[in-house]
Task: inverse folding
C-alpha cells in the first residue's frame, strides 16, 4: 500500500448517509477515508489523497462514475488504483459498462458494508502484491545492470595487465638482438602485469566470498618493501611519480599475514598512483613497534570528500566524481582492504593529507605466529 501500513479509500458518492456510514465502518477497520459528492474536482481530490482503493457511485448529480473511471484510468498516478463501482441492484448494463471503463469490481446497492469492506481488503491485498512484485522486479533489473556493469569493468581493467603480458611475451618471442638486461626487464614487466591481474581476480573472489584465510608469520618488512618497490617501479617511472618510503622498526618483528598485507598495500598504492598527477609524490610510512603495525599511504591527488570517506570501503562503491570519470576501477579494492584489515584484527580509514590528497591509515596488531586460521 502507498501509505506506510495505513490503507486509504476514497468514496465518490452523492448520498451523504452512505458517505457517513462508510466513513465510520472504514475508519473502524483502520482505513484512512476521504470522500467527494460530485464528479467535478473529484479526480483532483483523489490525486491529492493518493488512495489504495476508489469506490465510485454510477449516478452523480453532475456526471457519472464511468466518465470519472475513464479519467482515473488515464491518469498516471491513479491508473493502477483498483476501482469498485456501486451500482443499482439488477443493473447488469451498468456493471458491464463499469468493467469496460476499467472498474475491477462492483457491489450492488443497497450493499452490505461488511461485504464492501471484504472486497476492499481483497483488492488492496492484490494491489499490495502487485506493488511488491513491481518493486522486486525493479530491484532485480537494477541488480542485473550492476552485474553487467561489473563484468564490463572487470573485463576493462584486466585488459591492461593482460595486454602488457601479451606485448612483452611478443617482444621476447621476436627478440633476435635482445640484451640480457632488456630480457630481464621485459620478463619483470610481464611478471608484474600478471601479478596485478591475478591480484584483481583474487580481490573479486575474496570480496564475493567475504572471508579470507590467514597465515600468520613473522613479517619480513624489508623483503615486502622490496617487492612493492619492484612492482610499482615501472608505473612510477612511466607517470613520473616519486615513491618515498619511510620505515621504522623497533623491538620484536611483527607477526601478520604477509600476503594479505602485500595485497592491501598493492591496492592502496595502485589507487595512489591512479589518482596522482605526473610529478606527484606518494608516501609510504611504516611503523612497527610494540606489537603494532601502523602503515600510511599518502598521495597528492584530488582527496576524498568527508561524505565519501566511509562509503568508499563498501563493495562496488566509487566516489561520486569517479563513476563516469576517466580513472578505471571496480570499487572492490578498498572493500578488499577493509575485509583483510578486519580479518587481521586491525582497522583502516582515510583522512585528508596535509597539503592536499588523501592519507590511508591502517593499524594492525601483531598476531600469534604460525597459526593458520580461517575467519
Ligand atoms: P576502484 O579504485 O577500483 O574504483 P577502490 O575500492 O579501490 O575501487 O576505491 C573506491 C573509490 O575510492 C574509488 O573509485 C575512488 O573514488 C576513491 N579512492 C580510492 N583511493 C583514492 C585516492 N587515493 N584518492 C582519491 N580517491 C580515491
Result:
Amino acid at each position: 500500500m502507498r501509505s506506510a501500513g495505513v490503507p486509504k479509500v476514497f468514496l465518490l458518492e452523492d448520498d451523504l448517509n452512505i458517505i457517513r456510514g462508510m466513513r465510520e465502518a472504514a475508519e473502524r477497520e483502520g482505513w484512512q477515508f476521504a470522500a467527494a459528492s460530485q464528479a467535478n474536482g473529484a479526480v483532483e481530490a483523489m490525486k491529492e489523497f493518493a488512495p489504495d482503493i476508489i469506490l465510485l457511485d454510477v449516478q452523480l448529480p453532475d456526471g457519472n462514475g464511468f466518465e470519472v473511471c475513464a479519467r482515473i484510468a488515464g491518469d498516471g498516478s491513479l491508473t493502477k488504483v483498483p476501482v469498485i463501482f456501486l451500482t443499482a441492484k439488477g443493473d447488469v448494463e451498468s456493471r458491464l459498462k463499469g468493467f469496460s471503463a476499467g472498474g475491477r469490481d462492483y457491489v450492488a446497492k443497497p450493499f452490505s458494508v461488511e461485504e464492501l469492506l471484504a472486497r476492499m481488503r481483497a483488492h488492496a491485498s492484490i494491489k499490495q502484491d502487485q506493488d511488491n512484485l513491481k518493486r522486486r522486479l525493479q530491484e532485480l533489473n537494477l541488480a542485473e545492470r550492476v552485474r553487467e556493469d561489473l563484468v564490463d569493468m572487470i573485463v576493462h581493467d584486466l585488459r591492461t595487465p593482460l595486454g602488457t603480458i601479451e606485448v612483452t611475451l611478443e617482444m621476447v618471442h621476436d627478440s633476435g638482438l635482445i640484451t640480457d638486461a632488456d630480457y630481464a626487464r621485459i620478463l619483470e614487466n610481464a611478471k608484474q602485469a600478471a601479478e596485478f591481474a591475478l591480484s584483481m581476480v583474487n580481490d573479486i573472489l575474496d570480496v564475493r566470498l567475504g572471508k579470507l584465510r590467514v597465515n600468520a608469520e613473522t613479517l619480513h618488512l624489508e623483503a615486502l618493501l622490496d617487492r612493492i618497490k619492484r612492482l610499482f617501479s615501472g608505473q612510477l617511472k612511466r607517470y613520473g611519480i616519486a615513491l618515498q618510503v619511510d620505515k621504522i622498526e623497533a623491538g620484536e618483528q611483527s607477526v601478520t599475514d604477509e600476503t594479505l598485507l602485500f595485497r592491501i598495500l598493492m591496492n592502496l598504492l595502485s589507487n595512489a598512483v591512479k589518482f596522482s598527477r605526473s610529478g606527484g609524490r606518494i608516501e609510504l610510512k611504516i611503523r612497527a613497534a610494540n606489537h603494532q603495525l601502523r602503515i600510511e599511504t599518502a598521495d597528492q591527488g584530488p582527496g576524498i570528500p568527508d561524505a565519501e570517506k566511509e562509503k568508499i570501503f563498501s563493495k562496488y562503491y566509487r566516489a561520486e566524481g569517479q563513476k563516469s570519470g576517466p580513472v578505471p576501477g571496480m570499487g572492490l579494492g578498498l572493500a578488499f582492504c577493509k575485509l583483510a584489515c578486519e580479518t587481521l584484527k586491525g582497522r583502516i580509514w582515510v583522512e585528508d593529507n596535509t597539503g592536499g590528497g588523501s592519507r590511508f591509515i591502517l593499524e594492525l596488531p601483531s598476531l600469534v605466529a604460525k597459526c593458520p586460521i580461517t575467519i
About this structure: The pocket of adenosine-5'-diphosphate is lined by residues 267, 271-272, 275, 299, 301-302, 304, 312, 317-319, 322, 329-335, 358 (CB under 6 Å).
